Amino acid sequence: MTLNFTENSFLTKMLYTLCVLVLLLNSYETTFVVWGFTAFITLRKKYSVTFLRLQLLLGLVILVALFSAQFTAHKSYVYFKDISYLLKPMLGLAVGYNICKINGKRFFSTALYAGVLLAIIHILTILVCFFIFKITTMHLLRHYGGYFNDYEIYTLVLLIFPKEFQIKINPKTRFIFIVLLSISAFLYLARTNMIQFVVLIMAIKGYFILNAKNIKYLISFSAIVLAAYAAIYYSNPSRKGEGLEAFLYKIKIAPIESFKTKINEEDWKDFNDNYRSFENIITVRQVTDRGFPTILIGKGMGSTIDLGREMWTNDQEFIRYVPELHNTYMTMYLKAGLIGVFLTVLFMVFLGKMKVTSDPLVYHLNLLLLGSAIFLIVSNWVFLGLYLKLDNKSILLGFLIAYRELIMASKTSPISVKNEY
Question: Does residue 52 surpass a pLDDT of 90?
Answer without folding.
Answer: yes
